[in-house]
């Protein structure tokens, strides 16, 4: 059943790699595309948003009663165990509590808060597995590159395929709703009128379809651990989420607790290890914990945190460190810094009609998209919204070679919206979705491609090619042998490091 014959104009939300490749493939099918990006450049999560004027020192701004440092990302109230609520109205956000306008540089940062990329961030999947179709990496590029190089690669792609001109920079999507057969996209744009002069303009546009490519590294997750909220209140600069980390500065001689056992904990731990006194890495023992052999040898893995001891404040000496109790009863004393490497929520605040944060994943009906923030519901192949496939998503799956993988999703979207690829019927999509729920369960694991990415791409390509060739489209090639060989080598290497056969330096993304 074809769903794309009336799709002529499409909104793409986000100008990271997912949004850029989606725009490219839609444009190649003759579809009019408008890309919304609240930041001032292409790149999404790979943009390190630190201006030269902020490199030497941080500027602290009070907004909504919370400290905001433009070197990092603003944090929500603690705890934050469900997806964050919709953002405050932009015009209110851009004013100080006394009603005075912010400085121009501050306005840009408040409008588009920095993402999770830090200065020394590198890819942990080799560039040989992250090459977009028709756009090789520059000659001489190694397997491991900085976030700056990855951002430039995405930007050069957008320029090569004439996507950059389709992007509305400094534009934040506030609300998306279907009225009749059209999607109404409400947005606000930050327009620079002169030196230090900005204006916020409201926009309303109509589209035949919408593609959400805004990523899932925005709404941070802060666990509800007894005492953590109080620690954040007492020591706002000593407790932070990994999204706020920017550089290994200020950790000299410190005792640091990393909460979480994923890539952020591993990477940040290795960066601060040379200067810190002692680093603990706490874990609940989850399915996706990285092996302890991936950590810097100086880091000690400990059990889950039970509580943060609230210090007595009745003395004249304000405490500079605190005690943390673990689930196994052990106490970690003199903890100076806490970094929460606890991940993010799935959250799409501009689609409030499809969100219900008050129910569990198990209670999701056949219309909701977001419940507790651990997964997206009711999507066919993690792409098409089953009740109305003119709403699509590119960039949902985890644990995959994002650039290459997400391009295949973009090709599928372009195929369907152009009418060259038929979607199954709604009942067939629903049946496939329910079978996947039974197989993978609810929550974060539902979107994991840790063992499934090759099979997923093969099935997606077979489905696309079934229709597209006879309707005038070019046959889509599967993952190349070169790519598959690189993946096999990477899997082998990860296994050897996990088993202690080879040192973590063999992964080379840390060197």
From TrEMBL:
It holds the Pfam family NAD_binding_8. InterPro entries: FAD/NAD-bd_sf, Flavin_mOase, Flavin_mOase-like, FMO-like. GO terms for molecular function: flavin adenine dinucleotide binding; N,N-dimethylaniline monooxygenase activity; NADP binding. Keywords: FAD, Flavoprotein, NADP, Oxidoreductase. Belongs to the FMO family. This is FAD dependent oxidoreductase. It comes from Hymenoscyphus fraxineus.
